[in-house]
């Protein structure tokens, strides 16, 4: 596995593991349809401004709450050219406001069209109406990452001793290139 960082994963194996370790706003149900994840509900009036209401009981594996601020940080990190995410373009598919200029280095990642209205309300502004936007949110690259762990450990934040997750499983051990051990 190249990385367990949702913003640096490149292939299907990493994506599959990431889905177990990190929960995004939406997840895929058993039939592959988008369903509530960290967001218990969402709305939009014009397919351009999307508002997501987060579950108040969503927690990181260290016990701290998952908040809208985590999604703001994570999506800005995903967009930031310094992160060099192979999936930064995924935000372009959703036409998130300012994403093209951010990827091109013309604007800072903090100008991305995302904001926390409060701890449990995340708002995304698109540059044009995108009716299918919510369907893009099941992709693991748009999962939140814990700012405190990323800043404290840098590229080593995904090592078993350092990783903080919000999904169904917690990483216990990495074994070689193809194995990992997760525990609930």
UniProtKB/TrEMBL annotation:
Record-linked PROSITE patterns: SBP_BACTERIAL_5
Sequence similarity: Belongs to the bacterial solute-binding protein 5 family.
Official protein name in the record: Oligopeptide ABC transporter substrate-binding protein
GO MF annotations, alphabetized: peptide transmembrane transporter activity
Single GO biological process annotation from the record: peptide transport
Limits of the Solute-binding protein family domain: 34-173
PANTHER family, per database record: PERIPLASMIC BINDING COMPONENT OF ABC TRANSPORTER, PERIPLASMIC OLIGOPEPTIDE-BINDING PROTEIN-RELATED
One annotated Gene Ontology cellular component of this protein: outer membrane-bounded periplasmic space
Organism from which the protein derives: Salmonella enterica subsp. indica
Transmembrane segments: none
Pfam short name (any one): SBP_bac_5
Gene3D superfamilies assigned: Dipeptide-binding Protein, Domain 1 (3.90.76.10), Periplasmic binding protein-like II (3.40.190.10)
Location(s) in or outside the cell: Periplasm
Keywords tagged on the record: Signal, Transport
């Amino acid at each position: 596995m190249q990385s367990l960082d949702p913003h640096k994963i490149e292939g299907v194996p990493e994506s599959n593991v990431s889905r177990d370790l990190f929960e995004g706003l939406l997840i895929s149900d058993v039939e592959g349809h988008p369903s509530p994840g960290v967001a218990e509900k969402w709305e939009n009036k014009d397919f351009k401004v999307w508002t997501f209401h987060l579950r108040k009981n969503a927690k990181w594996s260290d016990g701290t709450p998952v908040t809208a601020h985590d999604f703001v940080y994570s999506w800005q990190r995903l967009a930031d050219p310094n992160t060099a995410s192979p999936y930064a373009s995924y935000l372009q598919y959703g036409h998130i406001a300012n994403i093209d200029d951010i990827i091109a280095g013309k604007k800072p990642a903090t100008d991305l069209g995302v904001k926390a209205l409060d701890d449990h309300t995340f708002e995304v502004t698109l540059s044009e109406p995108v009716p299918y936007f919510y369907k893009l949110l099941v992709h693991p690259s748009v999962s939140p990452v814990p700012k405190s762990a990323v800043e404290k450990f840098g590229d080593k934040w995904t090592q078993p001793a350092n990783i903080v997750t919000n999904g169904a499983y917690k990483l216990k051990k990495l074994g070689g290139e193809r194995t990992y051990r997760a525990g609930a």
